[in-house]
Give the backbone structure.
Amino acid sequence: MTFSPALEERFAKLLTSYPPRRLRSAIVPMLLYAQDEIGCVSPELIEEVARRCEVTPLQVDEVIGYYSMLHRKPLGKYHVQVCTNIACQALGAEELYDHASRTLRLGNREVTEDGLISLEEVECMGACSWAPAIQINYDFHHFVTPERFDRLMESLRDGSYGKKAS
Amino acid sequence: MRYNDPSPLEVRVISQRFDIPNSVSIDTYLANDGYVAIKKVLGLTPEAIIEELKTSALRGRGGAGFPTGMKWSFVPRNTGKPTYIICNSDESEPGTCKDRLLMENDPHQLIEGMLIAGWTIKSNKGYIFIRGEYRYLIDIVDRAIAEAYERGYLGKNILGSGWDFDVYTHTGAGAYECGEESALLESLEGKRGVPRLKPPFPAVVGAFQSPTILNNCETFSAVPVIFRNGGAWYSSLGTPKNGGTRLVCISGHVNKPGVYELPMGFPIMRIIDEVCGGVRNGKKLKAVIPGGSSAPVLRAEECDIPYDFDSLAKAKSMAGSGGIVVLDEDTDIVAVALRTIKFYAHESCGWCIPCREGTTWLKKLLTRFHEGGGVPSDIDLIGELSANMLGRTFCALGDAAAMPTGGFITKFRGEFEEYLRKSRATTPVAELASV
């Protein structure tokens, strides 16, 4: 497999980051960075990472199920993650997740038919003091109300997301 | 940037540069006392460095509150093996959001703290383990590392000392368990993050089977100022056995939630009332979860205590990771207990049976209870199950799940009993929800 030049550069750096004969350390970072580019951890990616880290494909495969950010099937172009852990729960995150699920017509880890949006109820993401919080891909959004959530989803659909202050 | 306004009651030591424009750049850092401490430290012996750290009374900010100077002193020297400096930025204890600010606003302070640790044990490599969700921070920290190489603070022959030190970032990929130090080391080695049997502790057999200093991001970030201003100065900011300040993350039902840097020993009620403007909507305080979600809950009347490791331990809870979740009188404690155990059941790595099965049974019991299908004996059963998990697992995740669950039952038993009476009539769900 070949990746974008930026990702290849990142991989090259990763493979020199660890002590001699410890290339295996790069497995998880490589899987996550590659997943961001190709959409999921595919069987080909497992083979490729195994080759580059000089381990068997099984040694790569066995770590995937452990890490909740790694997934074998593509999620939406925009992966919407709603935290419902206790700090967010205290400020209405469970209601926010229900609102998201209802309005997007998605269950947990489901993807819209057009592949644009996927939804996930996630554990604490480190935004407790600015709850309720969501992440869209890697972007944090704090103090999210259902109204603000709707506006964010609208901006995902009309393509304006990230181009103006939300 | 900060996401909340500062409070006049704060003592800004490790957050002192947060409000300076472009605080991430090495020029800002150098113009504001940056990389001064490492120059001093390069002239000190390991013994003198560790002594100064002990004087500072700095204790680990990740949760356990272990004295940092002592931790560093456990690393054996001259074993012939390489040694490593590992920063735990896997911040994932629910209620905690401080390491994020330290890396976002002052990455060079963290790098300098790791440099000091590196020089102490003559290590040549350091890794910053950052949780996968914090991708933007990996970019910020990578840029800071590159700047430090350009200016000679990392790399070969640092400041003419003849000593080499490299620092790399390493990403996690979504696993609370990797915040536990031995699980973090497994993950760093490219494996599933299951904990190791201890002893040996990471100080002796840590990263890549070698002696390792492993500290939380906030702990490393506090090190430079200790060597700039002296251990005695740092210690005097806090209480005798709890030196310095810490970033306290307040969330939940207060008017001004946020992350504030406060002296160790600052009273919890003053944090709620004065720093955070009191409980919101004029409600009464019901409970406080004082040190991340694994800390046993305190009832409102128990909260009149100083916020430090020893005072919280005396109150049979813990200051943990510095995350305080404030709950008002309308809070449904059963719902909080259920959400808490759902988290631990999800995050249990499955390595130890008491944790894997215990968290799942507790989740089933509390789910049934919450849905209205509980029976009176459930309350004691939940308490008994929690008690049987304590101390019976490789790592602290089993305890982290059992302690708060037992705490909710002990402290709010009346509410569980009341819940049972009220909810059975309306939602008679008799069967366990599947998991």
Q: What stands out?
A: The radius of gyration of chain B is 22 Å. DSSP finds 17 helices and eleven strands in chain B. Residues 246 and 261 of chain B are 5 Å apart (CA to CA).
